[in-house]
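Deviations from the work plan: none for this task. Representative record:
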Amino acid sequence: MTDEVRSDELPTTAVDPVTSSGRDGKVKVAMIGLCGCWGCTLSFLDMDERILPLLTEITILRSSLTDIKRITERCAIGFIEGGVANEDNIETLRHFRDNCDVLISVGACAVWGGVPAMRNVFELKDCLAEAYVDSPTAVAGAAPVIPFHPDIPRLTTKVHPCHEVVEMDYFIPGCPPDADAIFAVLDDLIHGRPVALPRSLNHYD
Ligand code: SF4
């Protein structure tokens, strides 16, 4: 890593006491999208009306839903969408592993790389050339440029499933998984039951 300060080490805004006390006694959950399409996060939202009663039992810290960008307290459960395709993904995934008791790969991209891993059969330089130099949508007459800047996370040579970077505790397959499957796993975990995802929610044939 070339960053002098990790993103999760940047200063945070203090949480006001009322908000903080409202989280007491609740199961703390965090979620993040790495290299995916956010479809799995939308599947989480597809729990629809079941989310509201859930919020009496859980509180969602870092997530794209809350727009909280750091894990400010240790979490019981972390949901990871997407695989690992750049150095920022590695940093974020390790931060989740360090701060979540249970870490869950949600969806095909997190479980085995998914669609982004299709680039694994090519050399990275060829993928970049196809995207930025030889692209049929390149602006005619413009000099082709492959973006490079210290602030742009460097791509990994291959796209990796999350468990190749850190240990993952559970895997919810699907592209995206059904909201019922995510709810079933979350409901088991917050009520202290062994996770038992029924096959009826876990097959696609
Ligand atoms: S598994 Fe499917 S829905 Fe989920 S992030 Fe990957 S491509 Fe999107």
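The beta strands are 27-33, 58-60, 75-81, 84-86, 100-106, 155-160, 170-172.
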